[in-house]
Write a structure and sequence with these properties.
single chain; four-stranded antiparallel sheet; six-stranded mixed sheet; alpha+beta; Neuraminidase
């Protein structure tokens, strides 16, 4: 989950491991779900969506990451999409759920027409309509970033794809959106094909009444390209804090703050003016992957992670902060003295006094109550997707729905690799191996194909020290060969942490290819 490990840790969003609970089957375990090598990505997405729609999901969402949770009225939350991976299973979703705050229960919305499966998209509410833009569908060899716009009408519970006009934003995920008058403002995000990665700092305006996109230019330099920033609009002021990007394959957690007055565009030739701001108060300990939501312009942040300087691991938090863009001051609402080890916590215990530390939880605020749903947490070097629901009211936490992760104790032995991102890439390798009847080798190195004689010849050329051992995970392989990768990096003008990140990326590339 380190900020330098992969793009997904920046924007960090399923399936129960025992998939029989909701009647679904793993996409990897069914040949019908496999992508054919010559199959165009668009055709594959259509087929994947139809197969997913043919299965009836349960009334309770399966655990998922990088979904969206939106307040649709004072008593209901709307959940859409997301992804799940535990090392063996990887799935993306396009199901829709409503959570009733009065009775603390989920209900499934059955739709005939709906968007294709995705994660890391954005949804905003305008009157009685939800607007969704972008997101991604990713496997090892196929990356697809959407730039479609959909509406979900709350009165009749229907999805409709909107064909828009103007300068449409490119396909992306990890972007941010907000409502300003009769417009949607979109900022940043990223595009990654595994061969090309690009982060954005562009700003777009979608006029809802004219159904037209336009790109907003700036008079002066503003925030550098990034995804997963904190984003708020209140009284014409657009507020941006932090985010994540990669520069030369090194993950960067940003902590800068920018604002712009949107109403001044009329006097600046439809161009914006960026202002860099300073914040006061005690900032969160976490660097990235906060869960966050906005209520009347005020931003609430929960959890997140911080890299450990001398290790590739991360510290998870369950701190709760707010920041008001008007006075730009951090306020700490809840903070534990020291993050606890997950091994010592009963994180499926409804009697717990507070939610465990996590990243990428989904937040919503209604009637002076903050709701926190799910998130992701490492357990024995394996990413675990959480599905609990909490509320924070009158300075106290209350568990509304405990985690349903009774199989978490097996997750380490069952996983391909500790990082969900790496498992995403390996999962598609599993699909390829299944075509050759080699599913039993999925926990081994990708050098395990007996049919590939040229691959064996390449292995013979590699020093035994660099051979991936049977069952060896990426994290263990890196620890064993770390000095080799560090020696190949020029040490001039580079600190130890950055050198280790680059070494890890090089090691990861070797391990996976």
């Amino acid at each position: 989950m380190s900020g330098g490990k992969s793009k997904r840790s920046a924007v960090y969003d399923s399936e129960y491991k025992n998939a029989a609970k909701d009647g679904r089957k793993s996409a990897i375990s069914e040949n019908l779900y496999k992508k054919k090598k010559s199959e165009p990505i668009g055709q594959y997405l259509d087929r994947y969506t139809k197969l997913l729609d043919s299965i009836t999901p349960s009334e309770t969402p399966s655990p998922r990451n990088n979904a969206t949770l939106t307040l649709i009225n004072n008593n209901e939350l709307f959940l859409f999409g997301g992804e799940y991976c535990n090392g063996n299973i990887f799935n993306l979703y396009n199901d829709s759920y409503i959570y009733d705050l009065n009775v603390n229960k989920w209900s499934l919305i059955k739709c005939n027409n709906k968007p294709k499966p995705r994660c890391s998209h954005q949804i905003v509410k305008y009157n009685d309509v939800l607007f969704m833009f972008g997101g991604e569908f990713a496997t090892k060899n196929e990356y697809f970033h959407y730039n479609d716009l959909w509406t979900f009408t709350l009165t009749n519970k229907t999805w409709i794809e909107i064909k828009t006009n103007g300068t449409i934003p490119s396909g992306r995920s990890g972007h941010k959106m907000g409502i300003w008058n009769d417009n949607i403002i979109l900022f940043g995000g990223f595009y990654d094909t595994n061969y090309e990665c690009k982060y954005h700092n562009d700003l777009y305006l979608y006029n809802i009444k004219s159904n037209t996109w336009s790109k907003l230019e700036s008079i002066n330099p503003g925030p550098i390209p990034r995804s997963a920033s904190i984003f708020s609009i209140k009284d014409n002021i657009l507020f941006i804090y932090g985010g994540y990007s990669k520069i030369n394959d090194i993950g960067i957690a940003h902590s800068d703050t920018w604002t712009t007055d949107l109403q001044h565009m009329a006097t600046n030739g439809n161009k914006i003016v960026w202002e860099k701001r300073k914040l006061s108060g005690e900032p969160p300990r976490a660097e990235i992957c906060y869960g966050n939501c906005v209520n009347d312009g005020v931003v609430y942040l929960f959890g997140g992670i911080r890299d450990i300087n001398d290790d590739m691991d991360s510290i998870f938090y369950n701190d709760l902060f707010t920041i008001n863009p008007q006075n730009r001051k951090w306020i700490n609402l809840y903070r534990t003295a020291q993050p606890e080890s997950l091994d010592s916590l009963k994180f499926n215990d409804k009697t717990s006094n507070f939610p465990i530390e996590r990243a990428n939880s989904l937040l919503a605020y209604s009637n002076n109550v903050l709701y926190v749903y799910g998130g992701i947490r490492e357990f024995k070097k394996t990413d675990v997707i959480l599905s609990d629901m909490w509320k924070y009211e009158n300075n106290n936490w209350t568990c509304l729905i405990p985690c349903d992760i009774q199989n978490v104790s097996q997750s380490e032995s069952d996983s391909v690799e500790g990082s969900c991102d790496s498992s995403v890439e390996f999962d598609d390798s599993i699909i390829e191996y299944e075509e050759y009847g080699e599913e039993s080798d999925i926990t081994y190195s990708n050098y395990s194909s007996d049919d590939d004689k040229s691959g064996e010849e390449e292995i013979c050329k590699v020093n035994d020290f660099l051979l991936v051992k049977k069952g060896e995970k990426l994290r263990d392989f890196f620890e064993r060969t770390k000095e080799h990768w560090l020696q190949k990096i020029p040490s001039e003008n580079m600190n130890e942490k950055d050198a280790k990140r680059i070494a890890f990326e090089n090691c990861k590339f070797f391990y996976e290819n």
